[in-house]
Amino acid sequence: MLDILYSIIPQMLFFAAPLIFTALGGVYSERSGVINIGLEGLMVIGAFSSVTFNLLYADVLGDATPWYSLLVAIIAGMLFSLIHAVATITFRADQTVTGVAINMLALGFGVFMIKQIFGKGQTDFISQPIYSTDVPFLVDIPVIGKMFFNNMYITSYIAIVLSFVAWYVLYKTPFGLRIRAVGEHPMAADTNGIKVYTTRYIGVIISGALAGLGGAVFAMTISLNFSVSTIAGQGFMAIAAVIFGKWNPLGAMGAALFFGFAQSLSVVGSSIPLLENVPQVYLLIAPYVLTILALAGFIGRSVAPKASGVPYVKGSR
Amino acid sequence: MFSSTKFNFIIPIISVLLGLAAGAIIMLIFGYNPILGYQALWNGVFDSPFFMSETVNRITPYILTGLAIAFAFRTGLFNIGAEGQVLVGWVAAVWVGTAVDAPAFIHLPLALLAAAAAGALWAFVPGILKAKLGVHEVIVSIMMNYIALHVTNYLIRFVLTDNQETTEPVKQSASLTNDFLIGLTGSRLHLGFIVALLMVLVMWIILERTKLGYELKAVGYNQHASNYAGMKVGRNIVVSMLISGLFAGLAGAMQGLGSFGNAFTNTAFSNLGFDGIAVALLGGNNPFGVVLSASLFGFLKVGSLNMSSAGVPNEIIEIVIALIILFVASGFIIRWALLQLKKGEKK
């Protein structure tokens, strides 16, 4: 039994990390009142920019390359999310529509640029990915060490720590209160002197940064290259995690971990005695069926931030 | 002043022009000749009857997924699950098309019906969960997409075939293809476009000429008011999703009984459903608008394949389509700019 946990838990954290980052971004955007269906596209931009940077600068930067690549992806994600912000906040565009457009734009742009730079539609594999490591000392702790500190990616730890930071910021700081206020009742927030537009811009840009990071972590740890199908639905899973987690950073993290767990089951499931005779299709659809059951059963109604999806027009009632 | 119906036409047209202009600018920046690029796009469709019919084959499922999403939008629902509904419709149609023996006038309608039913069934799940438990239809639809992907792969591998990646072709009695059209164009041009256009009429009639359509739209505008007026909100949500899924399922049948004539395993989505979102939006969620926007999308997608002959990566068209959608969505600013222009003229 313990052996199973030893193989599942690191896998789960490995698959969950990109989803956690992206879902946290989604929480901030939606809490500020802007639906971001474009998370998928922002992940594409993160994956594209980090892989491209990694390939071009691996010779110069050596071992530090993947970390710079993550940084590049964060900036690229922020810049790209500005399109969403300008369209939805300033131009009052329909947020869902714009998000869909962002997804198409990002994929078209990413592949177009890859063809420009590398002359083909799929990049080579990066030479400087993020490797898994054992955490010194902690790995020697009996039982727990092998579960949580063996063969782990640093990015998984960062994701979990960041979830707590995101929760603290959202619920315990004035800035977080402002984000929540403009997402819940922008007019009341405006009356109290909170700059609704600025706050929403920040919310969207944070989502761009985190989704870019999520896409980059996926590229640097899982896919290791970029093509049209690198990011295939992870952004939508992140949106699901946001709703599943009831728009709370820790809830979103929990949902992302759950998705990671389900995904790792379908990978290592065949080596688990109890599951080895189950046709693989059941393991493959398990995460999605379980999510639906969980939503229908014990999670119940998840209510979006009240003003989410509604453009704010100053002076309107 | 422009009336608001006038804006409904002007904004998409301006958006398309702006999108193409932006595409030209991008081509210029990267050192391509936009005139040659767009010429290749145009020729890619109109140079041969083969590619013209390929374009029609591309437009047909776009019309149906566009209708699916537009119908749901009109009733206040976002059916992001069209993607999965297309897949199950596709496999259901091929299943009936390969396994059943019947004369064409029974076999073909039966296969279409199976596709529509499968799509509707797949849309029923998010519909009933939304109606009964208030679960967000978007998240359930996304989950249903993945379930569809894996389940259809499983069915193709282990039920329809014996561990193959591709099924047998559907029997001629269930096929939408037609020897006369194939002889005429040398392509797989099929009769699906008739089905698609019929569905356009069906959607229009339901929404504009029936009590059901009136109720569905009312629930879309304001659930609470509809409830107060005595309409059954939950039932309307389910019915709306069923009809939406039916359209999407038929889109799958167009592929399975027409363009491809079989079904095959997929590692990723076909994107027909996701592109349908864009088709619906550009078409203003109006059934006739959907025909126009589906035609534009089909034209751009098929034509773009020829752009590499001018050395331009065909992803440029993906960018153009995305920009068109962005401009349509930002209609407010276009409207504002037009009104400013109008004011300037008066002075």
The separation of the N and C termini of chain A measures: 60 Å
Which of globular, elongated, flat, extended, rod-shaped describes the shape of chain A? globular
Unreliable residue stretches of chain B: none
Looking at the structure, what is the overall shape of chain B?
globular
CATH class of chain A equals Mainly Alpha
As for the number of domains of chain B, it is: 2
> Helical content of chain B, roughly?
over 70%
The whole-number mean of residue pLDDT values of chain B reads: 90
Compute the average pLDDT of chain A.
88
CATH level 3 topology of chain A: ABC transporter involved in vitamin B12 uptake, BtuC
Number-wise, the strands of chain A total 0
Main beta sheet strand tally, sense and closure of chain A: none
Largest sheet of chain B: none
Helix share, percent of chain A? over 70%
Q: Rg of chain A to the nearest angstrom?
A: 20 Å
Structure classification of chain A: mainly alpha
Please tally the helical runs of chain B, counting DSSP H or I stretches of 4 or more residues: 15
> How many helices of chain A?
12
- Annotation, overall tally of beta strands of chain B: 0
Task: List SSEs of chain B in N-to-C order.
Answer: HHHHHHHHHHHHHHH
Number of domains of chain A: 1
Subcellular location (chain B): Cell membrane
GO molecular function (chain B): transmembrane transporter activity
Keywords (chain B): Cell membrane, Membrane, Sugar transport, Transmembrane, Transmembrane helix, Transport
Organism (chain B): Terribacillus halophilus
